[in-house]
Design goal:
The chain is mainly beta. It has one helix at about 1-15; strands at about 45-50, 55-60, 60-65, 75-80, 85, 95-105, 115-120, 140-145, 145-150, 150-160, 165-175, 180-190, 195. The strands form two sheets. It has a seven-stranded antiparallel β-sheet with strand order 5-2-1-12-11-10-7, with no helix packed on it. The protein has a six-stranded mixed β-sheet with strand order 9-8-6-4-3-13, with no helix packed on it.
Length: about 200
């Protein structure tokens, strides 16, 4: 009986030209446009493989730049998800999620072929502040309630025409509770390259 009533209501709404509501559960699934404000470029996602399931966050803003403040080039890459979830778990955090990394180069890479970096080899040179010390060192930060560098991090960048495809993978304790175990993090982003340094956290 209830089904017949719902069908009659929907039929009436269509005949009157009214919009039919979407009954998809928006708390567990969400279709979004991953666009960078201003130029319509798709950015990407932050995927967190937690012990209890997978979270997928839509990247709402980001920047990829290479400048030359002194004798070496400086690459800066950051992304942020302003609480924009594509897939969530029951205990997914109510917070923004962000990542930033800074790497110096003796020469500017072309990225025409995939450029790869095993960041675990670089941590001895990591700057432990927010960029107030020398601007030529290595620095990285991942934020999900806490500021923590990703471990066993690998970075891959390749140029596709006027855009750059960037992939960062790493490991860390579960972002909600370390007692849950380890989580794997994958950041994928497509961004234009600029020569203007625009950091998310650093000066």
């Amino acid at each position: 009986m209830l089904i017949k009533i719902n069908v009659l209501i929907l039929t009436l709404m269509l005949s009157l030209g009214w919009a039919v509501p979407n009954f998809e559960n928006s708390t567990t699934s969400k279709k979004v446009d991953n666009t960078l404000t201003g130029n319509g470029v798709e950015i990407g996602t932050i995927e967190i493989q937690r012990p209890g399931g997978v979270e997928i966050w839509n990247i709402t803003s980001g920047n990829f730049s290479i400048d030359q403040p002194s004798e070496r080039y400086r690459m800066n890459f950051w992304i942020n998800s302003d609480q924009d979830l594509i897939q969530r778990l029951d205990d997914t955090g109510e917070t923004n999620v962000a990542f930033e990394i800074k790497i110096p180069f003796p020469e500017k890479p072309d990225f025409a072929t995939p450029w790869q970096c095993n960041y675990t080899e670089r941590l001895s040179e990591n700057e432990d502040d927010y960029g107030e010390a020398p601007a030529q060192g290595y620095w990285d930060n991942f934020y999900y309630y806490d500021h923590t560098p990703l471990e066993n991090m690998k970075i891959e960048i390749v140029r596709k025409e006027d855009l750059y495809q960037i992939k960062v993978t790493g490991e860390l304790d579960d972002p909600i509770d370390w007692q849950y175990g380890r989580a794997k993090y994958t950041i994928t982003a497509t961004l234009p390259l600029t020569d203007q340094y625009q950091s998310y956290w650093m000066e």
